[in-house]
Specification:
Largest sheet: 6 strands, mixed
Distance between the termini: 49 Å
Radius of gyration: 27 Å
Strand order of the largest sheet: 17-16-19-20-21-22
CATH topology of the largest domain: Immunoglobulin-like
CATH superfamily of the largest domain: Immunoglobulins
Helix content: 10-25%
CATH architecture of the largest domain: Sandwich
């Protein structure tokens, strides 16, 4: 972007005139927003109001931020000082009078950022940024006018279980759940609960450590049975920004989103599967099973011209009976196994017994080469509470030779060990390439990098 365009953009964000702005280098450093804010729960009670959290992302230069918040159209008041190397947070009612009162609330958030070192003259600059507005609701435990807000948490309790799953009866969901839990609890289980809370729906499937999307609202029922901690998720509403403010919309009836039991694959298809899951030994519960076959890697055209672009389509499958969220798929393509190829990473969701496709563009300088795809069912992206090891890791990696007729003699042999990753290629000329079925761990390590080998070793040690 032209420096003048960057300067105008930053001035608009900071409320400054172009003459007040810094030089283009500073503008390029500070244009990306280093701060994110969120409310910890979309709906809470007056006894346990939510907290405001600020996440500070480190940048090319250090900074500090003074956070100011206005409640329901009131004046901005300072609430936090945040450094670039860490975040911060506070319970809203401790610094904003009225934040815990029943009703729907709106927060305006502004950050005053100081970049660089203020102690050194000429080495720092400041700017002001308005962060995205936030909204949350509070209900009074004793009842009253906040009944609507309470519905976003407890709404599913009174609806017919059949409306949530046609395989269930007409009793209220809360009655059905109480009956299921009472049949499975042991004398060592805590007899209290279950506990009902409000969370953003994306928290169930988000990557580990990700901040949720503040739109879809879910009611989450937490329970303990046989030493397991379980959750049942229902979508109860949505929060939408309009020209007139924020609109809270009910989902009527609530929609079943999924069941999560620690160390088991999440179940998103049927609420009626819960009794079966509790009856089954944890080691035998349904889990996902990621797989990529050589035939799932398609190159178009399959005999590319040197340096010409080609389309690569990779089909990734979940052959298991459990859902998989945030599966990491690493794809490497290149010409020589002795040099690091071009690497791409994708993150995909795969319900039980489903498949998805990944598409990317590639080029092969000599008109031949390889494509290697490795799916990691359990990785740094996996949700903490829904990650399960791959029961068949040997079929999570596939390898394809591109245009083998153009490759030099014994090209496949140059990839080394043959003990880990399934391989395929188009039919070669007789005698050109020795038949191979797999390309192994050493090739995977060489092409994807040591981090992939470390991930695989960790999975093997856990499983």
């Amino acid at each position: 972007m032209h420096p003048v365009s960057i300067g105008l953009l930053v001035c608009l964000l900071a409320g400054q005139s172009p003459a007040q702005s810094a030089d283009p280098e500073q503008l390029a450093i500070r244009t990306p927003s280093p701060l994110a804010v969120r409310v910890t729960r979309p709906v809470s009670s007056t006894h346990e109001p939510p907290a405001l959290e600020v996440k500070a992302t480190p940048g090319p230069v250090g900074y500090r931020a003074q956070i100011h918040v206005a409640l329901d159209g009131g004046e901005l008041v300072p609430v936090l000082d945040v450094a670039s190397v860490r975040g911060a947070g506070f319970r809203l009612d401790t610094k904003l009078p009225g934040a815990a009162s029943a009703g729907v609330h709106r927060l305006a958030v502004r950050a005053l950022l100081t970049f660089g070192n203020p102690a050194q003259e000429g080495s720092s600059w400041t700017e002001v940024r308005d962060l995205p507005p936030l909204s949350y609701a509070v209900y009074d435990i004793e009842g009253g006018s906040s009944a609507d807000a309470r519905w976003f948490v407890y709404g599913p309790a009174a609806v017919s279980a059949r409306s949530l799953d046609p395989l269930l009866g007409d009793e209220p969901f809360a009655v059905w759940l109480t009956g299921v839990l009472s049949k499975h609890r042991t004398k060592d289980d805590n007899r209290s609960g279950p506990d009902w809370v409000s969370q953003f729906c994306s928290e169930r499937t988000d990557e580990a450590g990700a901040w949720p999307l503040p739109t879809a609202i879910c009611s989450v029922v937490y329970f303990g049975v046989k030493g397991d901690i379980g959750q049942v998720w229902f979508r109860t509403g949505d929060v939408r920004a309009t020209e007139d403010g924020v609109e809270w919309l009910k989902a009527s009836p609530p929609r079943f989103e999924g069941v999560v039991i620690l160390k088991s694959a999440p179940e998103s298809q049927r609420l009626s599967a819960l009794p079966m899951l509790l009856d089954t030994d944890p080691a035998l519960r349904p889990i996902g099973d990621i797989a990529i076959a050589p035939g799932d890697i398609v190159i178009t055209p399959d005999t590319p011209k040197p340096g010409a672009p080609v389309a690569v389509t990779i089909t990734v499958r979940n052959q298991g009976l459990g859902d998989l969220f945030k599966v990491a798929v690493r794809v490497v393509f290149g010409a020589s196994p002795n040099e690091r190829g071009t690497s791409r990473e994708f993150v995909v969701d795969l319900p039980a017994q489903s498949a998805t496709t990944i598409k990317l563009d590639a080029a092969f300088p000599y008109g031949y080469g390889f494509v290697l795809a490795q799916a990691m069912q359990w990785s740094e992206h996996s949700p903490h509470e829904a990650a399960t090891p791959d029961p068949t890791p040997e079929d999570a990696c596939a390898f394809r030779i591109v245009n083998p007729r153009a490759a030099p003699p014994r090209y496949v042999d140059s990839f080394g060990d043959t003990s880990g990753c399934r391989a395929s290629r188009a039919l070669p000329e007789p005698g050109r390439i020795e038949e191979r079925d797999v390309v192994g761990r050493r090739a995977v390590e060489r092409e994807i990098g040591q981090d992939l080998a470390d991930d695989a070793a960790e999975l093997e040690s856990v499983s």
